[in-house]
């Protein structure tokens, strides 16, 4: 496995503005705007690049910096959610140039995240507006959809630059170029299939081509279809971990990692949890953990710097790096072993159980008092809990009358749960004994009843007899 291998989406990013396919209009507008800045009188201080994913918004900023000698100061959405982070960058932006560095371009990439369901992050948008007001350097924002109401002030303060959705022909053009550069032999039909599937998202098209090419050999439509269909299938976590461990090739491990909707962090937890179950040779295990640890280092860097480009390395290390680490006992990874949920996820499902328990108690009480579960949760359960924490006798009676299970009792009382459960047992025993006694009394009574009926019958019979006798019937 080569760690130094650069993913194609990075390797084949256009270096110059002129290399971008079919974004000529955007490029012209960008040039005009940036020339305004260089002349010291920009039309507006910010620009908002908008358009579908994979149309070149982010990479064009990088090319722009390279071509005009700007230093790129980049923030991603998770950074500028916090106002103080925006202020930090604003300070950087408000000075014309660093002592040693040249002019800067401030990039706020993918601001879409700020317009969350139910209203935007007003504080963050305010902070961005302030940044635009004070900046002495060009500010560029990118968004897939800039038309959210919350972005209006940002739109008003920006030159709006549209990126067109790339056509299938545009995508094909880039894919063909990459095939030539990589000396790959590709069926035109295979490329057509990949381009069609990408719906104009060049990033996904390039990623697909790379995945298919890693199989080695000629790229045929057959292989492309087979691999990309497999990639579209979503596997459950157990299945995906197994397929990753069992992979024989780098491309296979990476491809398997795409067949899950787990995010990379969670996938890493799954791999971490189950690694020692699958790989047992100590040296092999050490190598695998080494790869995982390096993946974690990349992950940390991604979180800190927002350089999502590094994600490809992290994923390669945690999948292929792990899968290809067994050397002493290479067969071990094909053994069938039982996997487990990672600890954190196990804990989460436990709290889910707790929630389910709470809800079922509320349901039971609700039935008894004819109230909704929500109402019981809010108005009744807190008092029941107080009773359960303070009055064992009363709690036990309630538990019996509602027929609560032991886990339910423990949920209602952290401290006295065991005491209450013991008392419930005693009371139930007493009740049973009482019922038994009552039962046998009843039996006696019934026996007595029978007797008296018999007596009565006899009496009536004898009465009849005497009557008969008397009347001589
Ligand atoms: N118009 C284009 N011409 C050539 N390559 C492009 C173009 N648009 C995107 N790409 C390629 O696709 C990848 C994704 O582009 P990116 O700039 O990240 O898209 P966006 O930011 O719009 O989602 C880049 O690595 C680049 O190689
Ligand atoms: Mg982007």
Structural class: alpha/beta
Query: What is the count of DSSP helices, taking H or I runs of 4+ residues?
Result: 21
Question: What is the arithmetic mean of pLDDT?
Answer: 82
Cofactors and ligands present?
Answer: adenosine-5'-diphosphate, magnesium ion
Strand percentage, roughly? Answer: 5-15%
Strands side by side in the biggest sheet: 2-3-6-1-7
H-E string: HHEHEHHEEEHEHEHHHHHHHHHHHHHH
**Termini Cα gap:** 118 Å
pLDDT under 50 segments (min length 5)? Answer: 459-473
Please, how many domains?
Answer: 2
Question: How many β-strands, per DSSP?
Answer: 7
Overall shape: it is extended
Helix content: 55-70%
Radius of gyration: 37 Å
Profile the largest sheet. Answer: 5 strands, parallel
Structure description:
The chain has 473 residues and is α/β, with parallel strands linked by helices. It folds into 2 domains: 158 residues, Rossmann fold, CATH 3.40.50; 175 residues, no CATH class. It contains 21 helices and 7 strands. The strands form 2 sheets. A 5-stranded parallel β-sheet has the order 2-3-6-1-7. Strands 4-5 form a two-stranded antiparallel sheet. Strand 4 and strand 5 form a beta hairpin. Helix 12 crosses helix 14 and helix 17 packs across helix 18. Bound molecules: adenosine-5'-diphosphate and magnesium ion (MG). The site of adenosine-5'-diphosphate has 20 residues, from helix 3 and helix 10.
